[in-house]
Every structure is written in C-alpha cells, then in structure tokens.
Design a protein that fits this description.
With 306 residues, the chain is mainly alpha-helical. The chain is 77% helix and 0% strand. The radius of gyration is 23 Å and the shape is globular. The chain has helices at 2-27, 31-36, 41-51, 53-70, 73-94, 99-120, 129-142, 150-183, 201-219, 224-255, 262-268, 274-288, 290-300. It has 13 helices and no strands. It folds into two domains: 2-183, no CATH class; 201-305, no CATH class.
C-alpha cells in the first residue's frame, strides 16, 4: 500500500513539473517549446526507470491531458515526442540496454519528429520553405557558388539540418540522463571518453577525396545536379570532420590542464574559416589516430616525440 502511494505521489509530482513547464512556455510565447522542448523528456524518463513502462504510460496520459488544457497543438506534439523518447529510453535503462542502442532509439524518434516539424508539416509549425530558398541563394552568391539546383539543395540541407539537430539533441539527452542516473544511484554502461571515440581511417581518406572534388567542382563547370550533390556530400563531410576536430581540440586542452578553454571550442566551430581549420584537424585525427597518440604520449612522457 505504501509503495503504491509512493508511485502515485511521485507521478503527481512529475505531472505537476510538466504542467508548470507548459504554463511557463505559454507565458513566454512558446520560447521554451522551440529551444528546449526536449527537457520535458526527463521527468517521464526518471519515472519510467523507477517504476516501469506500465506506470509511466498512465502518468504520460495525465501529462498529455494537461497539455490539451494549457497548450497549442504544436506544443502537444512536442510533448508527445518527448514522452515517447523518455519512456523508450527509461525502459532501455531498466533492461540494461547498451549505450549504442539507447542512442539509436532516441536518435530515430528525434529525427522523425524533426522531419515532421521542418519538412512534412513545416507551415503548421511556423517554418517557411521560401525563406530557406532565399537565404540559401544569398549564401551561395556570397561564396560565388553557382550552377546548382536550388530546389534539390534546399531539400537536402533541410534533411541534413534535421539529422544534425537530432544528433545534437540525442547526445544532450544521453549525457544528462547519465548524470541523473548517477545521482539516483542507478547503474548504466559508462560513457566513452573523447579519447576512445574513433572512426575508421577510410573515413578520413574519403573526406580528403570529397575536399578535392569540392575544389574541382568550383573550377570546372558541371551539371547542376552533380554540382548540387557534391555540395551536399561536402556538407556531410564537414559535419563529421568538424566533430572529430572539435574532439581533438578538447582533448588537447584537457591534456594541457586548460579545461576552461574546452567551452571555447563550441564557439569556434561556428566561426567561418576557423571551422575549416578544425575540419582539417579532424581529418588528420581520423587518418592518424592523433588523439590516441596524444593520450599515449602523455601517459608515457614521450609527447615531444609525436
């Protein structure tokens, strides 16, 4: 009886937290909805881990019922996605799923929600595809890039943006969930450190080839579709190489004991031309396993020999 009462009390508290967040979002004209809606994942995630999926479904229904009274249809959709992610992730933690499986499930659900909100029902969620076309045209003119199929490029960049945002959101959810589980003394598989995350060397060589194709496409007149897909592939390569370059810079700062500079990397990756240098550093790291060599060098006291 006491255990059941504890379930109901904690469930009511989680519903109240979500209700307060929805009310704050309404008072702030939807700012929280567009910036941090994924934070709504954590109340139901914690509840699922502690009491299981069956109890979590009841609490989720109550949260959705409150959202129908306090929120717009778009907010209800965002909340529903957050609840699905939280229940799926929480149940995975209960069943001791590995981190890779938790990341994949969270990423797929998140990507589906971004595709719905930014592509399929863009106008309903306040997005204007024509503004994206105009912005992209101005960017291409600024970089003196011509001869591309704008329609295809806009669609491809929209999908890439959805993928990138999904990856970033998935990482945030995963890392914060680990912190919460540690605080609650619930065991999970440990996170990999930045030293241990590596890609096959062939990825680095492919990145070099893509850079060469991108330079050649700017000097030689090609078919519009070919030119468009070269730019799309180049953008994918840039995202991958910048990610590894950023991890390399963070590793270097950490090994030097300058951890306060790690947050500077998050700013530099968005600075034009500097992010290109970070991309080259990432390609070098992939091809030469630079971070692993740095770690071994520091451990063995032979860092100067690298």
């Amino acid at each position: 009886m006491n255990k059941r009462t504890h379930h109901i009390t904690e469930g009511s508290m989680m519903v109240a937290l979500v209700g307060a967040a929805l009310l704050a979002n309404r008072q702030l004209a939807g700012i929280l909805e567009y910036a941090l809606y994924w934070v709504l994942t954590f109340p139901i995630l914690v509840y699922t881990v502690r009491y299981g999926m069956r109890n979590a479904l009841i609490v989720s229904f109550c949260m959705l019922a409150i959202s129908f009274m306090l929120s717009l249809p778009t907010t209800i959709f965002y909340l529903a996605v957050s609840l699905i992610v939280g229940i799926a992730y929480g149940e995975g933690v209960r069943k001791k799923w590995p981190n890779a499986r938790l990341l994949w499930i969270t990423g797929v659900i998140t990507l589906f929600s971004y595709i719905i909100t930014t592509i399929v029902f863009a106008q309903l969620f306040g997005y204007d595809p024509m503004e994206d076309v105009k912005l992209l045209t101005d960017m291409l003119n600024a970089f003196h890039i011509g001869g591309v199929a704008i329609g295809e490029l806009v669609m491809a960049i929209s999908v890439l943006s959805a993928v990138l945002l999904s990856v970033l959101q998935t990482i945030c959810i995963h890392m914060i969930a680990h912190v919460l589980m540690k605080r609650l003394h619930i065991s999970m598989f440990p996170l990999k450190s930045a030293y241990d995350i590596k890609a096959p060397k062939c990825i680095g060589y492919i990145c070099i080839v893509i850079w060469l194709l991108f330079f050649i496409s700017n000097m030689v007149k090609l078919n519009e579709s070919i030119q468009t897909w070269i730019i799309v592939i180049w953008l994918i390569m840039m995202m991958v190489s910048i990610a590894y370059g950023a991890m390399t810079m963070m590793t270097m700062f950490a090994l030097q004991g300058k951890k306060n500079r790690i947050f500077l990397v998050a700013v530099l990756v968005f600075v034009p031309f500097i992010n290109i240098g970070i991309s080259f550093l990432g390609i070098f790291d992939i091809c030469c396993a630079f971070r692993q060599k740095l770690k071994r060098g520091v451990a063995n006291g032979t860092i100067r020999k690298l």
